[in-house]
Here is the input.
Amino acid sequence: MPLTHEAFDQLPKRPVLEHLRLTLVAVGALPERDEELVHLEQALTDFLAQQQDLNRRRILRRYLTGDWASYAADVSNRSRPHRG
Here is the structure.
């Protein structure tokens, strides 16, 4: 197993493994990272994957990832009455 955060992320979530990760960070064998941000990113990825409406998923992804220009264009286009 490579000694990376990504490798640890693939393992089962167990307290002993999280303790080992924190120990490896403390001794400098693994770089520090914002664990809360990593958990938030995973929660948002899971949330987006659960969205059945593909258009809604696309809009939410743009909003959540900070693609504000595309998000604003999508919202603007949806709120305009269709002429035809």
